[in-house]
Every structure is written in C-alpha cells, then in structure tokens.
Design brief:
Elements: H1 2-11, H2 13-19, H3 21-39, H4 44-57, H5 72-76, H6 78-81, H7 84-96, H8 100-104, H9 109-114, H10 117-128, H11 133-140, H12 147-157, H13 162-174, H14 176-187, H15 190-193, H16 205-222, H17 227-242, H18 246-271, H19 274-277, H20 280-310, H21 329-341, H22 348-373
Helix pairs in contact: 3-4, 4-13, 4-18, 7-12, 7-17, 7-18, 10-11, 10-20, 11-12, 12-13, 12-22, 13-20, 14-20, 14-21, 16-17, 17-18, 21-22
C-alpha cells in the first residue's frame, strides 16, 4: 500500500512540474493567451482553444500531446498533419464570405495581391537567417495573416516548425488592432486618411453565382497546388450564393466551422510542447512573423497610395492594410483608423474588398510556394 502511494505521489504535479521547467513556462504562455482573449477580446474564438490546448499539452505524463503514442490528441492531430482541418475551415469561411465588396470594385483585388509581398519578402529574409527553403516558405506565409493556410503549407513543407509557426500566425492575427494602426499612420498623411470613396455599385445575383466558379478555375490554373483550399473556399461560397442550398451553407458557416475551429485550436495548442516550442528558432520565427505581417500591411498601404495617385476615382490608402486576410478584423481596423480622423467616413465596405481578396491571394501564394518547394 505504501509503495502504491509513493508511486502515485511520484506521478503527481508536485514532483513532475519542478522537473519540467519548460512545461511550466509553456503553461504560463497558454494562460496568457487565455487572459488576452478574455480581458482584451483578442480573437477569443482562436486564442482560448489554443491557450487551453497549450496548458493541456504541457502537463507532464498526461498523454495530452500529439507526441504521445496514444490518446485523443494524438489521433485528432492527424487532421493537422494531413491538412484536413484547414480545408474544412475554408469551406465554412467560403459560406460566410460575401465577395460583393470586391466584385463591385474589381480594382481593389490589386490591394489584396499587394499585401502578399510580405510573404515573399519574409521568405527571402528567412533564407538569409539559415532556414531551409521549405522552412522559409512556411515562415513567410505568416505574412498572409491566414491561420488555416499557414497550417496547410507548414504541414506539407516543414511539419517540425508547425507549433511555433501556427501559434505565431494566430497570435499576430489576434494583434491586428495593435500592429496595423501605427503602420497605417506612419505611411499616410492626414489628407489621405480623410479621403472618402465613392459608394460601391450593387452586385447582381448572377455575378455572385458565377464568381466562385470562374474565380476557382482562374486561380487553380495559376496555382494548381492551391486547389484544395480554393476549391473548398469557393464551394462554400457557391453554397451560400446559389440560393438553393441555404441549409448546407448555414451548417457550414455555423456549427461545422465552429466545431473544426475548436478541434484545430486545441490541437495547435497541445502541439506547442516545451520540447518543440522553446528553441532558438522559435524566437526567430516569431520575429520573422512580425516582419512578415508588418511588410504585408505596409505593402498594401503603399500600393493604395499609388492607386490613389493614378486612379480617376479617389482611393483611401488605409484600406490597403486590409489586404492581409485576417477577415474581417483587418477591415474593421481600417474603418476604425479612418473614423478617428473623420467619424462620418465609413470605409468598412471598401476595406472588405481587399480583405476578401487577401484570402484568395494568400491561398494562391501558398499554392505557388508548394509548387516551387514541395
């Protein structure tokens, strides 16, 4: 009986935690993410599952890590390793997305494309810091501010970096309201921030139905490796816009995407064990991720300035920052920055154009990287 009690005590946290200081650090990181989500409202739908998964995955001898030979997380992680969850989330995202703002002003697609510069600039920077081309591609995609795409490409190219890259991507998505406004103000004048744009035209139902089909075919011709992501995105949008599959579209954009997001978040967090995460390269990844996100934001704003100079109709360069695909957070930030200068300036509908274009752009960029590096 005494031996059994001693064995039980040796398995408790009183003994195990002091022997695993790295796990204690990661539990603290997980609790910090939860606190930011609750107290600051930073992407709570993402950070709470990731933070709690991080706590679970770093309890010593609990078997709640993907590295465990058995256990629920070990099997659920299969969906990350084989790019299943990102594709399913893109299905729900497509059913949630209204492309009308982009279709009413097709020129705004260029702002979504310009923001992808951050991906390729960071790829170059990662190469010069000693990462392999495959690792550099996985790190660069953080600049797209698209968590599912980041997981999709990292699982294929550099699975060992997945915990650090995924946490970095989702963390920077949550920090959009903090990161973007200073960059926007630095690169624009007050006169530019006060620009009011023309009201967008109405988009017909026929355009909305045809768009997911035509856009899918056009994109996958350029980047066939992005077929899965773009196919699920545009299929979900077709369910929404067809008008005859509302029940399927409603399921995809509510219970379905919520369920997958919960599982994905828990698995991403649980994968961030101390052994995987607390490495020097993780700090480099976080630094490069910040650079990627900053360059993507700056590229969109600068291209918005250029577009305003050459366009007959005025373009507020603030909306260029929405070219990163953090939907709809980046578009809301653009509107907030504009309304600080002029409360009557409503930029949200204009900003949604480059914002949804950025979702397509980051998926196409992922397909290009997979073609070149896969």
């Amino acid at each position: 009986m005494l031996d059994a009690l001693l064995q039980f005590f040796r398995e408790t946290g009183f003994v195990q935690m002091p022997a695993h200081p790295g796990n204690v650090v990661m539990i603290g990181v997980g609790l910090t993410l939860i606190a930011l989500a609750i107290r600051r409202n930073y992407e709570p739908l993402l950070l709470i599952p990731i933070g709690f998964g991080m706590v679970m995955g770093n309890i010593p001898n609990a078997g709640a890590s993907p590295d465990a030979a058995e256990g629920v997380i070990h099997f659920l992680y299969f969906g990350i390793k084989h790019e299943i969850y990102p594709a399913l989330i893109f299905l729900g995202l497509g059913a949630m997305t209204d492309f009308s703002a982009m279709l009413s002003q097709p020129r705004l697609i260029l702002l979504g494309a310009a923001a992808q510069v951050g991906i390729f600039a960071t790829y170059w920077g990662a190469l010069h810091l000693g990462f392999t081309p495959q690792e550099a591609g996985s790190i660069g995609i953080i600049g797209g501010a698209d968590g599912p795409t980041t997981i999709f490409i990292t699982s294929a190219l550099a699975p060992d970096l997945l915990p650090a890259v995924a946490v970095a991507a989702y963390s920077y998505m949550a920090l959009v309201p903090i990161i973007q406004p200073p960059i926007i103000r630095l690169l624009t004048t007050r006169e530019e921030r006060l620009i009011k744009m023309k009201r967008p035209r109405e988009v017909s139902r026929q355009e909305k139905i045809l768009f997911p089909i035509v856009a899918f075919l056009a994109c996958v011709i350029v980047a066939p490796k992005a077929t899965i992501l773009l196919g699920m995105l545009f299929f979900g949008n077709l369910l929404k816009e067809s008008g005859v599959t509302e029940r399927l579209a409603n399921t995809a954009r509510t219970a379905f995407i919520d369920s997958v997001t919960i599982i994905l978040g828990i698995c991403v967090g649980a994968g961030a064990s101390a052994e995987r995460f607390l490495r020097a390269e993780s700090l480099k990844i976080f630094a490069l991720g910040m650079v990627a996100f900053a360059v993507a934001t700056a590229s969109g704003v600068v291209f918005g300035k250029i577009m305003n100079w050459v366009s007959r109709e005025p373009v507020n360069p603030i909306i260029g920052a929405a070219g990163v695909s953090a939907v709809p957070m980046a578009a809301r930030v653009a509107m907030t920055v504009g309304q600080r200068e002029d409360p009557s300036n409503f930029l949200l509908m204009h900003a949604m154009g480059p914002n949804v274009a950025g979702v397509i752009g980051s998926a196409v960029a992922a397909g290009v990287l997979l073609s070149l590096l896969g």
